[in-house]
Amino acid sequence: MATSQLTAPSVTVSARNLASFEGLRHSSVKFASFGTLKPGTLTHRSFKGLVVKAATVVAPKYTSIRPLGDRVLVRIKEAGEKTEGGIFLPTTAQSNPQGGEVVAVGEGKTVGKTKVECSVQSGAQVIYSKYAGTEIEFNGANHLLLKEDDIVGILESDDIKDLKPLNERVLIKVCLLSKSVSEEKTAGGLLLTQTTKEKPSIGTVIAVGPGTLDDEGNAKPLSVAPGNTVLYSKYAGNDFKGNDGRDYIALRASEIMAAVS
Q: Rounded CA gap, 50 and 45, in Å?
């Protein structure tokens, strides 16, 4: 059984087996704040800022989930929730990065003629790509079933700079904007704000993953190393805010365009 839900600070919509909003009748949707909407009152702007969440609910008669292949089952943790080891998940991420605890892993994958086990184990605290996997409600908790490659890295503290990237992932500290850039004006004389300017795309490598696997199952080292200053794609990766107030980004090595010096 699947459920879909719209959430916003003061607006909630729920419908059973709802794949989209197209074709909804006004009598089938009720807003807690506004009551039943009349035909013609629902516009595109009405849904601005709303988030759609869909989860597959596993019936209580099923007591376990065994991931297959290189898939991993992660129990989703809310921001600020403590792990069993007493570690808080980061709450200051800029783009709501996803984190949780690995509860089950598949048997791994085949690379060439070599069988390779998953690089994470049950109990590991991980950060994964924002839109990865399939959300599952199981045993009263939200889980995510995703491929190992969608896991950005292992984070065993409350500070993103301690992230241990996996595979070809790279953790970068974003370079600060200079004063002259932060006060930049348009040709018409308008002062640009942080939200209207393109985000910077240069930074310093903090940590790198072991690299991709060759046909023998051996990791190929990445072409960048901690300490390198690099130029990367502007809209790549996952953004984080560190405990030091600095911006960080975790992305794939293939999204790094050049090393600068």
A: 10
pLDDT of residue 41: 54
Indicate the pLDDT class of residue 106, thresholds 50, 70 and 90: very high
Backbone dihedral region for residue 189 (phi beyond 0: left; psi -120 to 50: alpha; all else: beta): left
Q: What is the DSSP string of the chain?
A: -EEEEEE-SS-EEEEET---STT--GGG-EETTTEEPPTT---GGGGTT-EEEEEEEPPTT-------TTEEEEEE--TTPBPTTSPBPP---TT--EEEEEEEE---EEETTEEE--S--TT-EEEE-TT-SEEEEETTEEEEEEEGGGEEEE--SS-GGG-EE-TTEEEEEEPPPPHHHHT-B-TTSPBPPTTTSPPP-EEEEEEE---EE-TTSPEEPPS--TT-EEEE-TT-SEEEE-TTS-EEEEEEGGGEEEEE-
Interval 192-221 mean pLDDT: 79
**Among residues 83, 68, 79, which one has the least CA distance to residue 125?**
83
Supply the pLDDT for residue 85.
Answer: 54
CB atoms within 10 A of CB 67: 20
Our CA angle for 167, 168, 169, nearest 5°, is 95
Q: What pTM was computed for the model?
A: 0.66
**Residue 32 near residue 78 (C-beta atoms within 8 A):** no
Residues 5, 13: contact at Cβ < 8 Å? yes
pLDDT tens for 242-258 read 999 999 999 999 999 99
Exposure string over 118-146, b if 16+ CB within 10 A, otherwise e? bbbeeebbbbbbeebbeebebeeebbbbb
Average pLDDT over residues 229-244: 90
